[in-house]
């Protein structure tokens, strides 16, 4: 149980286009989802916290108009990278918090999406 | 803000024990975690420890927590080549549901 999927797993797009990444909790409801960005050989940097039915909370330095987050249901959050540029190329990972569980391990990670902007 | 530090690289031989260390600054941490990341994949939760515990053992994994020194370690017994990966230490403080990650320790296990 507690599986989080991401789609697509890899995407290559041209500079100036927009890309949407989906994060789904497959067997639990997630009131909160988190979006992270990971550069090669570096740690995960939290970009934003996505709450179902409300606006996302962005970390300092993350442009909310560039990284659009929509958490329309208890099992789906989307991250749209608008007008992508090569510097947006990165590994994007989402995690989901299980609404029904409390405690240490209630956050589950997706497999990540590799975005390459050419 | 909170900070989590790890050594960047560890190399061991197959069959030896591996010890990965982590230090953190947030004294209000409630849970501390170890995650494993294989190349091109997401994070897999290996184990976690509640801040009022000193030690937790789970099969080949032993977590030691020294809360006074804010030091966390992960010991992997009988390390196998399949254990080669990046290991992230993370902490969660009492007020938020977000996690703060270290930069990760790359573990290389040679035959």
Please specify the SSE layout and strand pairing.
The complex is a heterodimer of chains A (about 120) and B (about 110).
Chain A: E1 4-7, E2 10-13, E3 19-25, E4 30-38, E5 44-51, E6 57-58, E7 67-73, E8 76-81, E9 90-98, E10 107-109, E11 113-117
Parallel strand pairs in A: 2-11
Antiparallel strand pairs in A: 1-3, 3-8, 4-5, 4-9, 5-6, 7-8, 9-10, 9-11
Chain B: E1 4-6, E2 9-13, E3 18-24, E4 29-37, E5 43-50, E6 55-58, E7 61-66, E8 71-76, E9 85-93, E10 99-101, E11 105-110
Parallel strand pairs in B: 2-11
Antiparallel strand pairs in B: 1-3, 3-8, 4-5, 4-9, 6-7, 7-8, 9-10, 9-11
Explain the overall architecture.
- The complex is a heterodimer of chains A (118) and B (111).
- Chain A is mainly β.
- In chain A, strand 9 and strand 10 form a beta hairpin.
- In chain A, strands 2, 4, 5, 6, 9, 10 and 11 form a 7-stranded mixed beta sheet that branches. In chain A, strands 1-3-8-7 form a 4-stranded antiparallel beta sheet, with no helix packed on it.
- Chain A contains no helices and 11 strands.
- In chain B, strands 2, 4, 5, 9, 10 and 11 form a 6-stranded mixed beta sheet that branches.
- In chain B, 0% of the residues lie in helices and 59% in strands.
- In chain B, strand 6 and strand 7 form a beta hairpin.
- The model of chain B has no long low-confidence stretch (mean pLDDT 91).
- Chain B is globular and about 45 Å long.
- Classes of the chains: A mainly beta (118), B mainly beta (111).
What descriptive keywords fit this protein?
heterodimer; A: 118 residues; mainly beta; seven-stranded mixed sheet; four-stranded antiparallel sheet; 0% helix; globular; B: 111 residues; six-stranded mixed sheet; five-stranded antiparallel sheet; 11 strands; 59% strand
């Amino acid at each position: 149980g507690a599986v989080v999927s991401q789609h697509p797993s890899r995407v290559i797009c041209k500079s100036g286009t927009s890309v949407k990444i989906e994060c789904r909790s497959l067997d639990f409801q997630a009131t909160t989802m988190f979006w992270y960005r990971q550069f090669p050989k570096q740690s995960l940097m939290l970009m934003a916290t996505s709450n179902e039915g409300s606006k996302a909370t962005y970390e300092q330095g993350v442009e909310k108009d560039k990284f659009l987050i929509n958490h329309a249901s208890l099992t789906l959050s989307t991250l749209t990278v608008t007008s992508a540029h090569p510097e947006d190329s990165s590994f994007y990972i989402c995690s989901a918090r299980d609404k029904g569980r409390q405690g240490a391990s209630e956050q589950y990670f997706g497999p990540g999406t590799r975005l390459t902007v050419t | 803000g909170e900070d989590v530090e790890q050594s960047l690289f560890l190399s061991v031989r197959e069959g030896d024990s591996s010890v990965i260390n982590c230090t953190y600054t947030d004294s209000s941490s409630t849970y501390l975690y170890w995650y494993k990341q294989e190349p091109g994949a997401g994070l897999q939760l290996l184990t976690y420890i509640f801040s009022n515990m000193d030690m937790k053992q789970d099969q080949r994994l032993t977590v030691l927590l020294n809360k006074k020194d804010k030091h966390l370690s992960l010991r992997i017994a009988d390390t196998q080549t399949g254990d080669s990966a990046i290991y992230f230490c993370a902490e969660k403080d009492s007020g938020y549901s977000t996690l703060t990650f270290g930069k990760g320790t790359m573990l290389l296990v040679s035959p």
